[in-house]
């Protein structure tokens, strides 16, 4: 059944677990996520980016999500717009039937230029007024995702600031977060703690200097009733990097957010954990391996089935590690 994200996150807070929010673009990702949720009895957050809408087309994306709800009626599903860059985009998602939207006012309407605080408050507050009138939840973001080592937002083609960010923007300030939540009434708040989108988050395994779980604790202590969201939370599994590189890929050494660090965040108010890159890596690894090992195969269902299995196993791992399992 389609439910609001607020309802889901309130339950997660009451029982002390986190919910992975997986990005969806196609049928295979959708099946993998839903089969994993079904197997582990987990509630599901399906999120669609502007890029996903461009790839699949809004009607296909919407009906894929509706199909997931129809096939798995016993699983609670929140249908979430990821990184909306204006109130108008969020309004369009609400019209399409989404039960939750992210108004990302940390960057301007181009999704690349760091915005000032007053702009962020204004667009987020206006989105909340409109969304809440429709029973739809809102996630806001304060601070800019980016590496504490380099000040860069990461992924070139994805969502993120262009150019170098300063330290002030890279770590969300607890006092400002309290003010922001009070001014906007958001249901959930995405915070900056040193993570970034894509596969190239850290050049070596993160430490407290490059990934600040400490900052999550400080923000949670200041606003204990606000559901916190971690973006850029893929773990970039070494096993999948190895498979990709073994079968013709070329991905340089890189590190993501260890699952154990996310679990620590969940102990301190993190309720939604955004994951996209890990599913992309598992999927690419599965395709490369299958085609290399079965060079005469040409039925796409054969290698796409491999991607479903690889992504499903990864989703099962996250549902179990985050304590989501058993809470559907
Ligand atoms: O926020 C970033 C997500 O990974 C979505 O990426 O814009 O390439 O769909 P995308
Ligand atoms: P990853 O690139 O780490 O998977 O992050 C995804 C994300 O934050 C989507 O909003
Ligand atoms: Na989001
Ligand atoms: Zn994100």
UniProtKB/TrEMBL annotation:
The protein's Enzyme Commission number: 4.1.2.13
UniProt family annotation: Belongs to the class II fructose-bisphosphate aldolase family.
Binding residue positions for Zn(2+) 1: 83, 197, 231
Known catalytic reactions: beta-D-fructose 1,6-bisphosphate = D-glyceraldehyde 3-phosphate + dihydroxyacetone phosphate
GO BP annotations, alphabetical order: glycolytic process
Summary of the function given for this chain in its UniProt record: Catalyzes the aldol condensation of dihydroxyacetone phosphate (DHAP or glycerone-phosphate) with glyceraldehyde 3-phosphate (G3P) to form fructose 1,6-bisphosphate (FBP) in gluconeogenesis and the reverse reaction in glycolysis.
PROSITE patterns in alphabetical order: ALDOLASE_CLASS_II_1, ALDOLASE_CLASS_II_2
Residues annotated as the enzyme's active site: 82 (proton donor)
Pathway: Carbohydrate degradation; glycolysis; D-glyceraldehyde 3-phosphate and glycerone phosphate from D-glucose: step 4/4
Required cofactor(s): Zn(2+)
UniProt cross-references to Pfam families, sorted A to Z: F_bP_aldolase
NCBIfam families on file: cbbA, FruBisAldo_II_B
Protein name stated in the entry: Fructose-1,6-bisphosphate aldolase
Positions with a binding annotation for dihydroxyacetone phosphate: 198, 232-234, 274-277
KW Oxidoreductase (keyword) present: no
Cofactor comment: One is catalytic and the other provides a structural contribution.
Gene3D superfamilies, sorted: Aldolase class I
CDD domains per the UniProt record, alphabetical: TBP_aldolase_IIB
Binding site for Zn(2+) 2: 104, 141
Gene Ontology MF: a single term: fructose-bisphosphate aldolase activity
SUPFAM superfamilies xrefs: Aldolase
Record keywords: Glycolysis, Lyase, Metal-binding, Zinc
